[in-house]
Design a protein that fits this description.
The protein is of the alpha+beta class and about 625 residues long. It has 21 helices and 20 strands. The protein has a five-stranded antiparallel sheet with strand order 6-20-19-18-15. Helix 19 packs across helix 20. The longest helix has 23 residues.
Length: about 625
């Protein structure tokens, strides 16, 4: 298995220019002092140029992404068990504690055998993923007892809109309500225990807040502190939010104004360092949130190089806790599942509790204030704006604005922050390497599995596989890797079609990403009709809305893409005349750029052999079911 994470503690090994080294000390945020294995030669090496030791005979597979599990199929109970295992091995991950003493204490307190403990430790150190600690599933009966997705949907909906309400129905009443709806839908009714477990997975704070009110929950659980708790070291707590920037940008070609862009930012509460950003013309969405998180987690050297900006942004690593507001795009299933995988504690900020988002709000204000000095600034009101014409004065394209923002962020990192009494970069460095009375946390591990991280934070849809492939938003997709799963049934409840997760980047709907349950890999699934042009989800939705407005029925992909092509032609012809057309055209330009970037960073359509055929059920007679279960 390819090592996907690089640890940067004293004594860890790595590869540089095909030679193996051992870390002697952390020189600064971007360099390690190391010595070559087998010699006493000590050298200073740039962290961005080093790799973890590679397994022998490693063979890459073109066009696919190797993973071990589809995150969306992991149950809450399985995540809870993985988190329990993570807590047990955490003392062994601490470089300042004796591993033997820690292991002795854990074995004595938990009853887990030493060999099992070290097996978990090895799995987690190789990947840094919480999913590496999931219980291994066998091919037999274990693991086949999951509830059908339709039942899970009913449970989630009733917990959300029935149990977590001011009427405060009991768990038993909630279970009866779920069972009633399942029977009405001709679905198997889940046991009370299954429903109770799913309710218990929700934090007690949230349950009391939803049922008895935020004030009751705050008085019971929230500490009375002058600042946000648990922000005592870098990456312990981060905050993320969106804002519409107060500046007009111009079209790449015509250089005429089009609109104001959106930005998603993440800040480290301890140091005030900006961990990640995502700039777009599209409105806030789950993808915006996911793109910002993945940008914050991943190293930024290659991204900065591709952007053509020569600055340092030494932030990477998984945050412990992530605070966001209650916007819809932050409450989606994708973000919850992905944060589970990377062991990020996801917290939605309480409504009408501005202190929980104060740091990110102040950062947004700082950026907006700096933008007021640029041509095209829209200011914050009529009095401040005066007679200034932002549209006619605008000069910067989206790409140019992105570069300006990166330079501004670099300046911000090196400027005195009155709230912490030093620069954010110095606070970040002291927290990681030690200094100014702060014990060193050590450099965070660097994630190297960029493809997986980007896919994990992409939105997904559930669909069955039919003989024509998969249909999503009236668009047909097909690839040979889907053949074994055509008309497949749910492994336990054979009356229901089996649903699979298909991930999609909204900026490029020309391909989906399918997780094959047999090969445990992601595959890119293209349009069934490969002559269709690449498009964004927003173009598709606009086309569909227009066709419905025209009274068209039985909408199909031919009609949709014919309209998309006509709209594009019209936009190109009128781009010189109208701002709306320039805006739509610029969005296409940005999506085209993203599409090229995706081709470099995500799996492409592979010429891969189909997965092995899954067990097939003929009808629903008992003998067939028995035969299936025995396989």
């Amino acid at each position: 298995m390819t090592t996907s994470i690089l640890f940067l503690n004293k004594g860890d090994t790595f590869v540089h220019d095909d030679r193996e080294y051992v870390i002697v000390a952390l020189a600064d945020l971007t360099h390690v002092l190391a010595k070559a294995v087998g010699t006493q030669e000590k050298v200073l090496i740039d962290i961005s140029t080093i790799l973890p030791p590679k397994p022998v005979n490693e063979a890459p597979i073109t066009g696919t992404l190797s993973v071990t599990v589809d995150l969306a199929e992991v149950s809450d109970e399985e995540w809870k068990e993985a988190e329990r295992r993570k807590k047990l091995i955490e003392p062994l991950l601490n470089p300042y504690e004796s591993a033997k003493d820690a292991a002795d204490r854990i074995v004595k307190e938990s009853g887990v055998s030493r060999s099992t403990l070290y097996r978990w430790l090895k799995a987690y150190r190789e990947t840094g993923l919480l999913s590496s600690l999931l219980a291994t599933k066998r091919n037999g009966g274990r693991g086949k007892g999951r509830l059908p997705q339709e039942v899970e949907v009913i449970i989630r909906e009733r917990i959300e809109n029935y149990h977590l309400t001011e009427q405060q129905p009991s768990v038993a009443k909630t279970a009866k309500e779920v069972q009633r709806l399942c029977r009405s839908a001709d679905l198997p009714a889940p046991h009370l225990t299954s429903i109770r477990k799913r309710i218990e997975w929700i934090t007690q704070h949230e349950r009391i807040s939803r049922r008895k009110g935020a004030r009751v929950a705050s008085l019971q659980f929230d500490p009375n502190l002058g600042s946000i708790p648990d922000a005592e070291w870098p990456l312990a707590l981060a905050q993320m939010d969106h804002t519409l920037l107060p500046i007009m940008i111009v079209h790449d070609i015509s250089r005429k104004s089009i609109k104001r862009p959106w930005i998603t930012l993440m800040i480290d509460v301890y140091s005030r360092m900006i961990l990640g950003m995502y700039l777009t013309l599209d409105p806030p969405s789950a993808m915006s949130a996911g793109m910002c998180v993945s940008h914050a987690v991943l190293p930024k050297e290659k991204w900065l190089h591709d952007l053509g900006v020569d600055v340092s942004w030494p932030c990477w690593g998984v945050m412990g806790c992530l605070h966001m507001d209650n916007a819809r795009e932050f409450r989606g299933e994708m973000l919850r599942v992905a944060c589970h995988e990377y062991d990020i504690d996801l917290n939605l900020r309480p409504v009408k509790k501005p202190e929980y988002g104060a740091h990110i709000e102040r950062l947004m204000g700082t950026i907006s204030e700096n933008l007021k000095h640029l041509p095209g600034a829209t200011f914050s009101g009529v009095d401040e704006k005066g007679e200034y014409d932002a549209e006619s004065k605008a000069t910067m394209t989206l790409s140019e604005l992105e570069k300006w923002l990166v330079l501004m962020i670099a300046h911000y990192h090196n400027s005195l922050h009155t709230g912490i009494g030093c620069t954010p970069l110095q606070k970040w460095k002291d927290g990681l390497l030690g200094g100014n009375g702060q014990l060193p946390r050590g450099l965070p591990a660097r994630r190297l599995d960029e493809e997986k991280i980007r896919l994990d934070f992409l939105p997904f849809e559930e669909r069955s596989v039919q003989d024509y492939g998969v249909v999503l938003d009236d668009i047909y997709y097909f690839h040979d890797v889907l053949r074994p799963w055509i008309n497949s049934r749910d492994p336990k409840y054979h009356r229901h079609a089996r649903l699979f997760r298909f991930r999609r980047d909204p900026r490029d709907i020309s391909q989906l990403y399918f997780f094959d349950p047999n090969s445990k890999r992601y595959y890119a699934i293209p349009y069934r009709n490969t002559s269709l042009p690449a498009a964004s989800i927003w173009e598709l939705r606009d086309a569909k809305a227009q066709l419905r407005k025209e009274g068209r029925k039985n909408i199909n992909e031919h009609m949709l893409f014919d309209l998309i092509n006509r709209q594009r032609k019209l936009e190109d012809e009128s781009a010189e005349k109208t701002k709306v057309a320039r805006r739509a055209q610029q969005k296409r330009i940005e999506h085209d750029k993203s599409r090229k970037d995706l081709a470099k960073r995500l799996p492409t359509v592979a010429k891969a052999a189909p997965s092995a055929m899954p067990p097939k059920i003929e009808g629903y007679d008992p003998s067939a079911i028995k035969s299936f279960d025995e396989e």
